[in-house]
Design goal:
With 295 residues, the protein is an alpha/beta fold. It has helices at residues 37-49, 64-67, 70-77, 87-92, 96-101, 169-175, 183-195, 213-233, 240-251, 258-277; strands at 3-4, 9-12, 18-22, 27-31, 53-58, 80-84, 125-127, 130-134, 137-143, 152-156, 159-163, 200-203, 281-286, 289-294. The strands form 3 sheets. A 7-stranded mixed sheet has the order 1-2-3-4-5-6-7.
Length: 295
C-alpha cells in the first residue's frame, strides 16, 4: 500500500522502505527496490495500480537489501538506474559485497545468500551530490557516506529519503554494533543528515519521522560508545579479531553465523582506522600478528 507523503512523493513501507516519486506523464522513480524479485514485484504492482509505470530507480547504496530488486524492475520496465559513484560498481558486480566482507578474497558459500549477494543491476547514471533532474522532478542528492563507501540520500519536495545513515532504535538494540564502512565519514554524515531541512524523513528501515534529531542522537551515541569500548579493549596490544570477540562479549550480541560475523569484521576495522587517524591507537605488526594498542 502506497502511503502519500506529498503530491508527488509516496512511500511503500517494507523491510526496506521504497520511495515512489511521480515524474512527468506518470513516469515514476523508485528510491531503492528492496531485497529481491518479491519486493520489486510489490513495488511494480503498487505503481501500476496507480496507473503509472516505473521509469527510473534511484539507488541509495550498494547493499543487497536495497538494490536486490533492481534487476527484476529493469527486466520488466527498462527503467534507468541511478547510483552513487563507487557503490555503482557493486551494483554492476555484486560479488564485491561478500568479497569485501571476506577480507577481499573469494567469499565462502555461506556469504553468498541473497542478503549479501544480489542479482547484478545495470547502472545508467552515476549521481553526484547536488541537484539531479529525474523524469522532470528535481531531486537533491545528499552525500551520506560511512554506512557504505558512498551512500547518498534523496530529498524531494521536503521528504528526505536518508537510507541507512540512521537505523531504528529497535535495530540498534538488537544488533548493538551496526555495520559501518567508515566511522569517520559516518559521524560526518550524521551531522549532514541532521542539518537537512525536511518535513518528513524516511530512513531505509523502520518508521518515518518528522525530525531526524532523536534517531541521529541515538545512532551517534552508539557509535561513540562502541568506539570507547574498542579503545578500552586495546589497552594492551591486541588483534582486531580479539577486539571483535571482546565487543561481542561486552554487548552480549548473539553472533552465531558467518554473515553476521563477517559484517562485523570490517566494522571493527572501521573503528580501528578512525581511532588510528585520530592518534588514539597505534598499530604494529609483531610476531606474525597485526596488533592495536591505545596510545
Ligand atoms: Zn545498508
Amino acid at each position: 500500500m502506497l502511503v502519500e507523503l506529498g503530491d508527488r512523493v509516496s512511500l511503500l513501507p517494507g523491510g526496506v522502505n521504497i520511495g515512489v516519486l511521480r515524474g512527468d506523464g506518470g513516469r515514476m522513480a523508485l528510491i531503492d527496490t528492496g531485497l529481491n524479485e518479491t519486493s520489486a514485484k510489490k513495488a511494480l504492482k503498487a505503481v501500476r495500480q496507480a496507473g503509472c509505470e516505473v521509469a527510473a530507480i534511484l539507488t541509495t547504496h550498494a547493499h543487497a537489501d536495497h538494490f536486490g530488486g533492481n534487476a527484476a524492475v529493469v527486466k520488466r520496465t527498462g527503467a534507468r538506474v541511478y547510483a552513487p559513484a563507487f557503490d555503482e560498481a557493486v551494483l554492476r558486480y555484486p560479488l564485491f559485497q561478500p568479497m569485501t566482507l571476506f577480507a577481499g578474497a573469494d567469499p565462502l558459500e555461506t556469504l553468498r545468500g541473497n542478503f549479501l549477494l544480489a542479482d547484478p543491476s545495470p547502472v545508467d547514471e552515476v549521481v553526484q551530490p547536488g541537484s539531479l533532474l529525474v523524469e522532470g522532478l528535481e531531486v537533491e542528492v545528499i552525500p551520506l557516506p560511512g554506512h557504505s563507501l558512498n551512500q547518498v540520500g534523496y530529498l524531494v519536495d521536503g521528504v528526505f529519503f536518508c537510507a541507512d545513515v540512521v537505523l531504528p532504535e529497535s535495530v540498534l538494540a538488537k544488533y548493538k554494533i551496526p555495520y559501518l564502512f567508515s566511522v569517520t565519514d559516518h559521524l560526518r554524515a550524521l551531522d549532514t543528515a541532521e542539518a537537512v531541512p525536511c518535513r518528513v524523513a524516511v530512513p531505509g528501515h523502520g518508521e518515518r519521522v518528522e525530525s531526524l534529531e532523536g534517531l541521529v542522537r541515538a545512532n551517534r551515541a552508539l557509535v561513540l560508545e562502541v568506539m570507547e569500548q574498542v579503545a578500552t579493549l586495546a589497552h594492551a596490544p591486541v588483534t582486531a579479531e580479539a577486539i571483535l570477540t571482546g565487543l561481542l562479549n561486552h554487548y552480549g550480541a548473539a553472533v552465531t553465523d558467518a554473515p553476521s560475523f563477517y559484517l562485523l569484521q570490517p566494522t571493527v576495522f572501521a573503528f580501528l582506522s578512525h581511532l588510528h587517524r585520530h592518534g588514539r591507537l597505534a598499530h604494529e605488526v609483531r610476531n606474525g600478528q597485526s596488533l592495536w594498542v591505545t596510545c
